[in-house]
């Protein structure tokens, strides 16, 4: 016959790895005494004290603090993509001159370039090999100048010379003309066989593209100003002879300065 078993009772003994919860009074005492109760372990993180910061700070004779020179950190460059739309009448010149267009973009600016025939645009993208942060904008300006009608040899100057710009305006911005009056104004700007336009380009050291009533000028700031004044005078009806005389005077002054 088996021995009778003792009735089950709740054990009052707590295991060795468990700690009883403190009472509210003990909890407040622990919170108040927490800084003293934390053991000083060298492996635990301790914030630097103000005395160490004061010891490292160097003060000059005038009482101003001297700080250590900053260290150059390599900035993380993200690849950016720009698309330059090409007009339909410039797609054929783009295809024929593509071997001259992508060379300065890839070799000089270190950009990734492709011609998208379906969307009729040129896509430019910067990469880890791109050195200058302004290389992408220079490439966009170069392709945009070619799309406006400038030759590749003239537009590539935007990549190599940072002081060159492009200014575009229309004849209606100067004077409202229509019909035959507009055609005569365009003829005065171009001249017979383009002689007037060439004379303005040579005197002002700029390049001019005359596309219908839209005029684009490539050059430096002062040279663009001189060429624009001559074109505005022709639009307003000034005889080409007087424009030539003023161009000779201004170009002579520019040669004296140089």
From TrEMBL:
It is found in: Nucleus, Nucleolus. Pfam families: KH_PNO1_2nd. GO terms for molecular function: rRNA primary transcript binding; unfolded protein binding. InterPro entries: KH-I_PNO1_first, KH_dom, KH_dom_type_1_sf, KH_PNO1_2nd. Residues 163-236 form the K Homology domain. Residues 41-52 have a biased composition (Polar residues). Required for small ribosomal subunit (SSU) synthesis. Has a role in the processing of early nucleolar and late cytoplasmic pre-RNA species. Component of the small ribosomal subunit, ribosomal RNA processing complex (SSU RRP complex). This is Pre-rRNA-processing protein PNO1.
